[in-house]
């Protein structure tokens, strides 16, 4: 493991207070958190419904955080422009939800956002083999998407490790993000396996103050007591 590489925490707003999103964003920024993770759900690709581009666009005016937009929606091509216009810095689509994944990723990049691809727990890495050079980040889902507070699926560790090896063998600097059941308890192991960006919903927002929780995550990721 490259011990000097930067680890990023991306709190998932799915576990934030939806009635005060602007204040939550402000609190995250004050806590020194670099990214914020937006879980967009359509009630079709996943069983839950959250928010869409208008909510993100309004919040963009209130925050300078890096907006990491995780689209858990079918056929995301229909809404790419809306989310980029809304101010997404990164747009992550699910490989399982795209009919022409290469084109979708190229379009995100052409619109000026960073393209990323997510894989459900059962989806093999081989599915994204050919498009690795064109993505800024790969999201390894470590729960079945749709809800916060689920249990981490252990085989995700092996998947992250294999992806890290694959990227290194191709000299690619693609980031690895892990999402679902992430906590200070497994942060070190995840980083050791190759994770660069840790998404956390419940294990972050249920433990204020945010600055302290961010610090706890970062220390755990580095296993500093
Ligand atoms: C799951 C979402 C996650 C979720 C993680 O469908 O993609 O981002 O918010 O929540 P926790 O950290 O509670 O598992
Ligand atoms: Zn997510």
Provide structural commentary:
The structure is a single chain. The chain has 225 residues and is of the alpha/beta class. 34% of the residues lie in helices and 19% in strands. It contains eight helices and eight strands, in the order E-H-E-H-E-H-E-H-E-E-H-E-H-E-H-H. The protein has an eight-stranded parallel β-sheet with strand order 1-8-7-6-5-4-3-2. Helix 2 links the parallel strand 2 and strand 3. Helix 2 packs parallel to helix 3 (80-86), helix 5 (156-169) packs parallel to helix 6 and helix 6 (184-193) packs across helix 8. The two termini are 19 Å apart. The mean pLDDT is 97. Bound molecules: D-xylitol-5-phosphate and zinc ion. D-xylitol-5-phosphate (DX5) binds at residues 12, 14-15, 37, 39, 70, 143, 145-150, 179-182, 199-203.
